[in-house]
Amino acid sequence: MDRKFIVRAALPIALGAVALTACSGSSGSGSTGNNGGGGKKTYTIGFQGPLSGGNAALGINEKDGAQLAIDQANAKGDLPFKLQLKPADDQGSADGSPPAARSLIGDSNVIAVVGPSFSGASDAAGKLYSQANLLMVTPSATLPDLVNHGFTTFYRAVADDFAQGPPDADYLIKKAGAKKVFLIDDTTDYGKGLASAFKGELSKAGGKLAGSDSAPQTSTCIPGATGSTSQYPSEASKVKSSGADSVFYAGYYCDFALLAKALRNAGFKGQLMSGDGSDDSKYVQGAGAANANGTLLSCQCSDIASNPNGASFISAYKSAFHVDPGAYSAESFDVTNAVISVLKGLGSNPTRQAVVSAFASVNYQGLTKAITFGSDHNLKVQTAFLYKVVNGKITYVGDLSKLV
Amino acid sequence: MCFTHNFWSLTIDGLNNGFLYALIALGYTLVYGVLQLINFAHSEVFMSGGFAGLFLTQWWVGSGTPGGAESIALVVCGTAVGAVTGGTVAFLLERVAYRPLRRRNAPRLAFLITAIGASFFLFSLAGKLFGRDAQGIPTLYGNGKLFSVFGGDVHLYDVIVAGSACAMLLVLDRLVARTKLGQGIRAVAQDAETASLMGVNIDRIISQTFVIGGLLGGAAGFLFGIANNVGYTMGFVPGLKAFTAAVLGGIGNIRGAMLGGIALGLVENWGVTCVRNSWRDVIAFAILVLILMFRPTGLLGERLGRSA
Predict the structure, then answer these.
(1) Pick from A50-54, A117-121, B42-46: least confident
(2) Distance CA A147, CA A36 (A)
(3) Which one of A62, A165, A205, B176 has the minimum C-beta count within 10 Å?
(4) Which ipTM did the prediction report?
(5) Which chain B residue has the Cα nearest residue A239?
């Protein structure tokens, strides 16, 4: 009897306690943040990106970069409050983006968001964040058009695809010796944007378009995607019969691996090239090193391993997450630090509105680049870099603008 | 012009896809034949075969480059392990998800929901256990060009898929037509109640039907994975396509499933010779709807009992 009574009594008490906490959390009359016990308030920086699904590697890289920046800021202790990270998983898709964004917007403790990682997801969430007056800084969404959609709180701390697509075409034609290029996009916002940026420069560089195609992402790579894997062998047939000597793929690494495999299986020996969405070691694993070798990959992400200032970041990242930093880990670290540098100037009670207005004039020198924005919310200085798969490893070639 | 230009290489790729569809489609059709149930979790049986083959070959190959007899052994063992895993998963699926419902005479809709639930459970479990990134099956053999058919190159992979699929389809066809087990399957498909009065153990026949479908689906999972990598959601589209193929050929009809699979694979590929690949499903399904308008029960008609 006693036990039953305790259970019966405990449940309403527990529920009541939860409700009370919830109320006191939200009734703070606009003052976000709650007391973390140690006197300092705690504020939250949100992160939105793919944390599950076939392209989760990029999102996890970025989440860990942001986490490291926050941990270091807390350890330093020179902020008037504590920070924590709240990750929201959008699976990298436009469909998954609004729910992830709402979960961050709905949390009144969140005063800035790093992300979303991908262009389609950024496009789908931009309006929501703007309406909520919540700063969103993407470390990696490169679709050029994103800054033209009237998202007032959106900043792009990465060069867009005009910094990547046109120099890619220049390099492929002028340096890699290609003449006829077959262009394939994955029908995502990012893929279409990169493909058209590439195509625009191709003829100016002296190359010919042997053909082009759109191959939707497959269900092997993206849960629920409807593209059929059976398309890649036929894609390879088209490429071969078009007489192309090279293929440029505008899309993400998982599907690029399937395409590369199909092309090599069909005996296509020409040059393969892709952009930052494919710049991940999982591309090599998925395609098989023998198929992937020689592939050129461009990325707005710099090579942190060859960066003279990167050593301490790499060792801190490794000790925290037990892996090497991947594509966009350092970029996300920089973006988060840029946000933190703005928070420093806002006193102990920063509001979303104050963060947004202060961020417009941010000037932060990060490991990878200077983060300072023009009036179009793009970076003032845009750069992209080139990588090549050599012996199954993605190796750094150089700064694209200096290579061509 | 563009149609004739690529025709033979697209035909070869289409046949290749078609054989895989046919192997998977048989799982749907066999189960439908005996239970009048669309086993939507069959795409996860397919996926389980892919993962089993992946783990076996990863463990076996390591970082080496196999060749010669080892390559043959790898393909044969990978297919076998994929098949056995598929069969096991299908067997468990029937035991856990469907048999209890059958015992309670559950309405047909309950089976359908259970099938979808089992499908979600299985692929989520695979994602949890094996990671959510697609993984490549290691290189098992040098995929050289063997010969050309009117300018369309035939590679070793095409021959492996076509050969093993034909062998399996042939064995299955004979099994259903000639053996006692096949007789039992046909009897249950025609009239389960009468079959049981004649001394056929229905539970056993249904179990065995699931296992046969699972064997084929699991083997297809590995063969598919060689070229297309293995991931926890890999079964989604191939499963839907194979289900379509089964309906196209006449659901419940074994030869229909084979024909439907091959027809779908070819139509899909021919459809996109002149247009962008994103139109693939639009064209393929438009043609399928047309076929079904004129032959509503599929190319070869519906019943398993009559087919063999």
Answers:
(1) A50-54
(2) 37
(3) A205
(4) 0.86
(5) B6
Q: DSSP per residue over A303-359, as a string?
A: -GGG-TT-HHHHHHHHHHHSS---TTHHHHHHHHHHHHHHHHTTTT---HHHHHHHH
**Do B115 and B40 contact (CB within 8 A), yes or no?**
yes
CA atoms within 13 A on the CB side of A197: 23
Is B31 a member of any domain?
yes
The secondary element (H helix, E strand) that includes residue A272 is strand A271-274
Total domains, chain B? 1
pLDDT at B282: 87
Q: Which residue of A has its CA nearest to B152?
A: A237
Q: Is residue B245 situated within a structural domain? A: yes
Structure token pair of residue A199: 């195509």
Collapse the DSSP code of B7 into the 3-class scheme (helix H, G, I; strand E, B; otherwise coil) and give the result.
helix
A280 → chain B, closest CA residue: B133
Is B277 within 8 Å of A52 when comparing Cβ atoms? no
Cα-Cα end-to-end distance for chain B: 42
CA B272 to chain centre: 23
Instruction: Assess if residue A73 is contained within a domain.
Output: yes
Most trustworthy range by pLDDT among A196-210, A224-238, B274-288? A196-210
Q: Are B45 and B129 in contact (CB under 8 A)?
A: no
Cα B19 to chain center, whole Å? 8
A359 in a structural domain: yes
Core vs surface per residue B188-208: b (16+ CB within 10 A) or e: bbeebeebeeeebebeebbbb
Judging contacts by C-beta atoms under 8 Å, the chain A residues touching residue B10 are 234, 237
How many Å lie between the alpha carbon of A80 and the closest alpha carbon of chain B? 39
* Contact criterion met (CB below 8 Å) for A117 and A62: yes
Distances from the Cα of A377 to the Cα of A143, A250, A371, angstroms: 13, 24, 11
Structural domain range at position A128: 36-159+307-371
- One domain, residues A85 and A145: yes
Please report where in the chains the tokens 């058009």 appear, as a residue: A145
What band does B275 get if pLDDT is binned at 50, 70 and 90?
confident
Those residues whose C-beta lies under 8 Å from the C-beta of residue B138, and which sit 6 or more positions away, are: A288, B57, B58, B61
* Burial call A96-128: b when 16+ CB within 10 Å, e when fewer: bbbebbebbbebbbbbbbbbbbbbbbbbbbbbb
Residues A152 and A171 in one domain: no
Which residue of B135, B234, B278 to mutate against A (max A Cβ within 10 Å)? B278
For helices B202-228 and B180-190, give the axis angle rounded to 10 degrees.
100
| A81 close to A41: Cβ distance less than 8 angstroms | yes
> In this structure, are residues A71 and A313 in contact, taking their beta carbons and an 8 Å threshold?
no
Q: Report the distance separating Cα A63 and Cα B148, nearest Å.
A: 50
In a domain, B131, yes or no: no
A235 with A358, same domain: the answer is no
Contact B134 A222 (CB under 8 A): no
Is A333 inside any structural domain? yes
Does A150 lie in the same domain as A286?
A: no
Residue A26 lies in a domain: no
Residues of A in contact with B16 (CB under 8 A): 233
**Total number of domains in chain A:** 2
B17 CA: distance to closest CA in chain A (Å): 6
> Are A293 and A332 in a shared domain?
no
